[in-house]
Amino acid sequence: MIPLISFSFPRNNLYTSNLISVSAKTFLSVLSAIETDSPKNSPFAFLKARYIVELTGKRATNLQDFLDYLKTADLTSIFYHIYHPLLDSHLVPYEFPNDFSFWFSDTLQDKDLAEQVANFDLPDVGGLESVRQILLSRIERALRERITYDVRPGNDFNFVNCRVIVLPTGQTARNLDELADNISEASELSIFYHMVTSRLFKGSRYDDFSEWIRRNTSDTELAEEIRAVDPTTHVNVKSIQQEVVKILQRYLKQKRMGRV
C-alpha cells in the first residue's frame, strides 16, 4: 500500500534529507515528533507541503452511497475535498467552497445540505475526525428528511485521497519580527500548511504560528488573535497570509510604543 503522507523535515533544527513516509493515521505522531525535535525557545522552522491526488475508485451515485463511504474514508480524502479549494479558489464557487457542498448543491440540488457543509469553524473544529462526525450527522439528518435518488451517469461523486509531501523551506524565525517578515515572504504552500494542514491533522485549536508564539513568548494575546483567524472565511491563501501579517505588524507596532 502506498503511504499517503511523506515528510522531509529538520531534526535538531538542522535541515537534513530525512524522508519519512507514513499513513494518514500516524500523521499526528509524526507531527508530535517534529515538535519534540523543536523544543521550547527553538526557532520557528517554516515547512511547506504539496498535495498529490490519488484515485480511490470509490464513487457515490446518491446521498446514501456518499454517507456509507464517508464513514471509513481516509482522513486525507476528507481533508482534500474540503480544504483544497483554498489553494485552488477558482475551482468551486465561493457560496459552496468545498467539493462536498458543491456536489450537494450542483448535482443533488440540495441547497440546504450544501449550506450546512459549506463552512467549518477551523479554529474550533477539533481536527479531521471531528469534521467527519459533523458531516455524518448532517447527512444522516438529511437522509431522514429527504428521498434519495441516483444521479445521472457521469455525475457521480468520485472520492480521492491525497499524498501530503512535507518539506522544509529553509526559512526560520527566532523572534516576532522575524516571524512577521518570514510570513509575509512565505509561499502560499507554506502558509496553507501551517494555518490549515498541520492544525487539522493534529486536531489542535492552534495553528503552528500561534502555537509557537504561545510556547516561546509571553505574548498570549497575540497568539489568541492569530489562533482566531479562520482560513475558511477567506477566498484564498493570500488573504489568510495578509490577515496574519497585519495582526503581527499591528501588535509589534503597539509593543514598540509600550501599549502592550
Structure explained in plain terms:
With 260 residues, this protein is α+β, with helices and mostly antiparallel strands. It has a domain at 56-159. Helices cover 47% and strands 16% of the residues. The protein contains eleven helices and four strands. The chain has a four-stranded mixed beta sheet with strand order 2-1-4-3. Helix 2 runs antiparallel to helix 6 (128-145), helix 7 packs antiparallel against helix 11 (237-256) and helix 9 packs antiparallel against helix 10 (220-227). The protein is elongated.
Mean pLDDT over all positions:
86
Number of strands: 4
Please list the strands of the largest sheet in the order they lie side by side: 2-1-4-3
As a percent range, the share of strand residues is: 15-25%
Count of DSSP helices? 11
- C-alpha-based Rg, rounded: 19 Å
> Low-confidence runs (pLDDT<50, min 5 residues)?
1-5, 7-23
Distance between the termini: 52 Å
Percentage of residues assigned to helices: 40-55%
* Largest sheet descriptor: 4 strands, mixed
Structural class: alpha+beta
**Element pattern in H and E:** EEHEHHHHHEHHHHH
Assembly category: single chain
Taken from the alpha-carbon principal axes, the silhouette is elongated
